[in-house]
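2024-03-11 09:14:02 INFO receiving multi-entity request
2024-03-11 09:14:02 INFO entity count = two
2024-03-11 09:14:03 INFO echoing inputs for audit
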Amino acid sequence: MTDAPVRQASLREHNLGLVLRQAAIWVTASGRRVVGPRHDDQSFEADAARPPSRADIAAATSLTRATVSALVDDLIAGGLLTEVEPAPRAGAGRPAAGLVLSASGPAGLGLEINVDYLSACVVDLAGTVRHREVRHADQRPGRPDQVLAEVAGLAADARTHAERERLTLAGAALAVPGLVTPTGLVRLAPNLGWRDVDVPAGLAALDGLPVTVDNEANLAALGELHAGPVGPASFLYVSGEIGIGAGIVLHGTLFRGARGWSGELGHVAVRPDGPACRCGARGCLEQYAGQEAILRAASADGTTDLLARASAHDSVALTALATAGEALGVAAAGVVNLLDVEAVVLGGIYAPLAPWLRPAVTAEIQQRVLTASWSPVDVRPSVLGADAAVMGAAGSVVRTVRDHPARWLTRTVA
Amino acid sequence: MTDAPVRQASLREHNLGLVLRQAAIWVTASGRRVVGPRHDDQSFEADAARPPSRADIAAATSLTRATVSALVDDLIAGGLLTEVEPAPRAGAGRPAAGLVLSASGPAGLGLEINVDYLSACVVDLAGTVRHREVRHADQRPGRPDQVLAEVAGLAADARTHAERERLTLAGAALAVPGLVTPTGLVRLAPNLGWRDVDVPAGLAALDGLPVTVDNEANLAALGELHAGPVGPASFLYVSGEIGIGAGIVLHGTLFRGARGWSGELGHVAVRPDGPACRCGARGCLEQYAGQEAILRAASADGTTDLLARASAHDSVALTALATAGEALGVAAAGVVNLLDVEAVVLGGIYAPLAPWLRPAVTAEIQQRVLTASWSPVDVRPSVLGADAAVMGAAGSVVRTVRDHPARWLTRTVA
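2024-03-11 09:21:47 INFO inference complete, emitting structure
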């Protein structure tokens, strides 16, 4: 029982968040994605539901109109809210101006290092993707400092682009396919060949911009949790890349494990005496369903080629995908047996391959999960597709601003 | 932000809990088990640390001495606390009386149905086991109502014994090796052959005594969490019986899954095309490391026989245990890769077999867990041994009384 008095400052912080949340709720309620590639910034007026007015917000929050107006003024001045003219309505009285999340205020920079590409994106407060860049290239030959220098280049491009659009980057989040400590040290990224790489030190070139580093599957799972239609509260997000990672969302919260190393689905054994894995063990899921294993089995020279062949009913490609789906299903069924999650979300390259992977994954779950007959498990492609990690990264920055608007207002004043 | 006033009644409830907790903390601080078989009720005075006095409790809780005294009086009258005479100390002033959890107040009744035995135990408020009964017999031939009638008989014996010791049963908890709904419906217990059995209805004979029903591995994991030395906050409790269950404790809380069906480790695939399992799938862990699989491979006619043979270095028994340990290790390594738990606790028959299982389990974790080299995983036998589930069940009743003493006091007054 704490009996600390509610200070005026924290009350104001709380109420700023409350007011901003009303505008954010409208973004979701109107069917828009909070963070998603198909979110179209030009369509505010086209939506059936109108954005909330000051009066709507007062009614929804039980704050006085005077308090709401003062807070809204501060949020507008700080670039977090924008007032939009109401659409004229026949026969009604003069409609009030609507409040929407600003399209020219703070924005989040998402960055991603993966084995065969680097990417960046800028997402504004309303969840609209305002900039996107991907550089395809095998990152394994490069030293970590070279890779980080290229990431810094992507970040600089993104910042230039953001400033041209009158956006201010509030921070950056970097997704890495490996085990990351809370301070941003990459302990191990087996498929990149990285060990104990101090990422924030290598990204000092982003001068001044706060950077957080996280596992790519964790960021992708967070992106998925906050994107699109309100999904299940507990799901396994599987990130299929050259490595396979997983983000575990339990009761609406990302589960990171006792020491932050959860989600290493790629190294769960499918056949304990199977082929040797880069990690030192045998028969890991990655050896059956990792990108390189699938491409090799399908004799395809890339995922585009694989998709084309599968679409053309090429039997070698179909067999390779069925085998990968079966292995993925065995591992996913184990997770469902253990954690009783409601859904398995296929992300990374698995998202476009879902039409071919899903039947086998579903069949294995149906056969192997004790409760499957009365507690069905939804197997579905990621809403954000291959961009989930970099979108989730940018979204995590945006959510921090939205959850703590007072911090942002103080920062811009300072 | 709720601004509900703290009512006097709830404040009293809160403070009663606070005071009782001081006596409970002493039980733990003095090296006693909260719920454990080796907790010796006769040794209070022998402990080096003395139990807390009213003054100690006032100091620890910041409540006034007058408030503490009134609450202590209520807790003594309600049979929750007992005043003990202080040990005479040379040279000191007259020492104050100590307060200990009552050994003649409310108690918890633990019940367990397993495939080859039924058991019951009574645990008092201080965690001392006051009664214990096990009936070994294969439960598979019996109908659920026959099994439940026998459980009711065990419960009646336990109640008679408890009353003779001036204990009042506060409630009962029943451990079942299957999937249980919050209302006590056993949806499926594959090794018992039960499906949709309404346990509370079948136990109506326990007239008046509130009964909760839970999965045996969950109750065992809770027992383990609260027993003995303060262990890791995140662990996998593996219950080896004819079936294999698991209780997953994450950050000090039992994780039940989205719909309550977590922990089905026995049906995680070790070899996807392995032998057929009772559940309908193939290659489940139970087929390699379940009690019947081990005994068959060891040509042993029971766990006592198996233990004797293993102790005598019988090579068939040792090979059988190494094979089981390897399968268990493959499955456990998968869990650690996914959930990053700090420990794997071997329970049920695995507890006495731990000397032979542990090397293989540890080796598989060492080889297969990506983070094992810098985040070691402790593999250890259950502190409570084969009794963990029934002890955990009784302990869950006791903890409810300890956490909500006001409810108990109201109940005894009524």
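2024-03-11 09:21:48 INFO post-check: Chain B touches chain A through 55 residues (CB under 8 Å).
2024-03-11 09:21:48 INFO post-check: The two ends of chain B are 35 Å apart (CA to CA).
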